[in-house]
Automatic annotation (TrEMBL):
Keywords: Signal
Annotated GO MF terms: polysaccharide binding
Name of the protein described by the UniProt record: Surface glycan-binding protein B xyloglucan binding domain-containing protein
Biological source species: Dyadobacter jiangsuensis
Signal peptide bounds: 1-32
UniProt cross-references to CDD domains, sorted A to Z: IPT (cd00102)
Chain ranges of the Surface glycan-binding protein B xyloglucan binding domain: 214-390
Pfam families, per the entry: SGBP_B_XBD
Length: 394
């Protein structure tokens, strides 16, 4: 009776309710049609994975390295809220997610459990899995703090992907004892019997032999073992005493004196006939293709190198050049031996700009260490093992 009265008093309500019911039916029908019209009935799917470089867009991937940016291509991917590689979750950027593509970087962290699966979690709770291998990087060896360390001393190796457990093996097959391991640095005690040569680091993800040589004895053109040349035999230390830097490879040079600004202080070197056969140790290939070589030497600053200039002559066939390569301050090893690495092509270019182009000489090469620059230097620096060695380790 009450409902009847309402409809009798408001006859338009029946039409209104009928309209609402029709609209609801149409909406449901449209939703159904829209879902049916979606690819794969609206279910997410991965068609393939590729690199992001447009020039290599046809390069499809079944795996990628740590940190690589990849493109996941498929259908109905817009609801992705999490992506996991093995058991490591990567970060997602909403603007890099569309219905057909997701741009994402492979995690750099190593997994605890390797499943070789990629898992996408969607906002509606659905999960999509896809076979995908994360290629864990083998060790990368880029440098040593000092390439000369005595047995029992601690060597510092720098690089990346130093995942434990790992071993460090020196030339001669002797393993070092690990002191400390970080992501980009290893400290290891040098074993008795370690020989000059590459260092090998091995993890469960691979093995790498260094390009650099530990105790590199190749192509040394200035070492003072024994002293040769024109200048300053008094700088050579043969028997280190209290307060001297320790010996790392026989004799070394120590300059301990006040050097005034623009004072001409020749430390070591001479022409080929004064230096002897050691002046012939620079290989012809370094003179012809200096970009393939480094100049290396060890230095120990008992006081900071914070003023003046050290000029280096190495590889000149026809005399000295007073505008030779300048090794500039500041540099401070705080009383420890460290290896200095300088691209030899930079040195060659500095000579050429001053009018002295490198040329092969069977008689050997001129050598000089010269302090000559602006600013007073309270100098206490030691040097050893000046050498020109290949970048590739051969």
């Amino acid at each position: 009776m009450i409902l009847s009265g309402i409809f009798m008093n408001r006859p338009f309500n029946l039409k209104y309710l009928s309209l609402m019911a029709a609209l609801a039916l149409i909406a449901a029908f449209n939703c159904s049609c829209q879902k049916d019209d979606l690819p794969n009935n609206g279910e997410p799917v991965i068609n393939f994975i590729r690199v992001t470089d447009p020039e290599d867009a046809d390069s499809l991937l079944t795996g990628a390295g740590q940190g690589d940016l990849i493109a996941i291509v498929g259908e109905n991917l817009q609801g992705a809220k999490e992506i996991w590689f093995n058991d490591q979750r990567t970060s997602l950027t909403p603007t890099y997610i569309t219905s057909t593509t997701i741009l994402v970087s492979v995690p750099t962290q190593i997994p605890d459990e390797i499943t070789n699966k990629m898992r996408i979690v969607f906002s509606n709770g659905k999960i999509l899995e896809h076979n995908f291998e994360v290629k864990i990087s083998e060790p990368l060896i880029s440098a040593m703090l000092s390439e000369y360390v005595p047995a029992g001393g601690v060597a510092t190796i720098r690089g990346d992907f130093f995942y434990q457990p790992l071993t460090v093996t020196f030339a001669g097959g002797k393993q070092g004892t690990l002191v400390n391991v970080k992501d980009q640095e290893i400290q290891v005690t040098v074993p008795e019997g370690a020989q000059p040569g590459p260092v090998t680091i091995k993890t469960k993800f691979g093995e790498t032999k260094s390009d650099l040589w530990f105790r590199d004895n190749r192509n040394i053109f200035l070492s003072s073992d024994p002293f040769t040349g024109w200048w300053n035999a008094a700088f050579v230390v043969s028997k280190p005493g209290a307060g001297d830097p320790p010996s790392i490879n026989g004799n070394y040079i120590r300059v301990k004196k006040a050097i005034g600004g623009w004072q001409w202080t020749e430390v070591a070197g001479g022409p080929p006939d004064a230096m002897g056969t050691i002046s012939q140790n620079i290989p012809d290939s370094a003179i012809l293709k200096p970009a393939n070589y480094f100049l290396k030497f060890e230095v120990n600053t008992m006081k900071p190198y914070n003023n003046n200039v050290l000029k280096i002559t190495a590889g000149l066939a026809s005399g000295f050049n007073d505008s030779q390569y300048t090794w500039l301050p500041p540099y401070d090893t705080k009383g420890q031996w460290q290896t200095v690495v300088i691209p030899f092509d930079e040195i060659a270019a500095s000579y050429e700009s001053a009018g002295s182009k490198l040329a092969v000489s069977a008689k050997g090469y001129y050598t000089r260490l010269l302090f000559h620059g602006g600013g007073d230097l309270d100098c206490d620096m030691a040097f050893d093992n000046f050498r020109i060695v290949p970048k590739g380790g051969k």
